[in-house]
Design a protein that fits this description.
Elements: H1 2-9, H2 19-46, H3 60-82, H4 88-120, H5 128-152, H6 158-195, H7 204-228, H8 238-252
């Protein structure tokens, strides 16, 4: 009798993460690292490497954009799937910090390409890739500001957070997918500028870049799959359940449907 009562009074054990989730997260990280490594290989072997004060400055752009707006952004979205039983505040801070790192790295890549174009006298913002890139960057920054204001800034009420949360989740996934698509557009544009008609001759650079494109698409698809699995969502902690019940009581307690 005493042992059963002790078991009832003891705190509930953290729910273990589904085994399949762990495998998919590990697979996503392998794909993400492969994307970054293949990008570095492409730029190092076929584009001469990376440097700021030379003609190689342009190469800073694709590397930074892929690390920031693809790999780190994808990992930031997975934080709530990986850290399932940690304090919500800690998870929020990690989620926000990864987005800050992604933004700073992407900003370096953006400055690099504009500075390179200025030095060479090239036109800016004329291609579909550049339009999508600016759109992604602006949306990413606005999304971070809104997320900080609603979920990290202490002044936002629980009701406001609850109402904005669906839009925040949708926009986060949409911006990530748009980032992957924009990277694919940029990759194709770079190949056509450099290789021209030789692209159709199965040049080694073209083949490697095509592999990079497939890796980018695979990384985006796996991250999206993890995010859309409802049974893999982070379980509500005790304090979150209490807040949710209090909010429901406040909002529905005097409604006709509750009587």
């Amino acid at each position: 009798m005493s042992s059963s009562r002790l078991g009832m009074d003891s705190p509930a054990r953290p729910a273990p993460a589904p085994a399949a989730l762990l495998y998919y997260v590990a697979f996503s990280q392998l794909l993400g690292l492969a994307v970054v490594a293949t990008t570095g290989t492409w730029l190092g072997v076929y584009r001469g490497g990376i440097a700021w004060e030379s003609a190689l400055q342009f190469n800073v752009h694709p590397l930074c954009m892929i690390i920031g707006l693809v790999f780190l952004q994808g990992d930031a979205l997975l934080v709530y799937r990986v850290f399932r039983n940690e304090a919500k505040r800690t998870t929020k801070v990690l989620h926000g910090l990864l987005h800050v790192f992604a933004f700073v790295i992407a900003l370096v890549g953006l400055v690099a390409v504009f500075d390179f174009h200025r030095k060479k006298g090239y036109a800016d913002l004329y291609s579909l890739h550049s339009w999508c890139g600016i759109l992604v960057f602006v949306l990413f920054f606005v999304q971070w500001l809104m997320g900080f204001s609603f979920f990290l800034f202490p002044g936002a009420s629980f009701s406001l957070r609850s109402r904005y949360r669906p839009q925040h989740l949708f926009l986060g996934g949409a911006i990530f997918l748009l980032s992957v698509g924009t990277a694919l557009l940029g990759l194709k544009e770079a190949l056509l500028f450099e290789l021209g008609t030789k692209y159709s001759k199965f040049e080694p650079e073209g083949v490697l870049a095509n592999v990079l494109g497939l890796l980018l698409a695979a990384f985006g698809a796996v991250v999206l799959y993890i995010l859309t699995r409802a049974d893999w969502k982070r379980p509500l902690q005790a304090e979150e359940q209490a807040l949710s019940m209090d909010f429901k009581t406040l909002t529905e307690g005097d409604s006709p449907s509750s009587q």
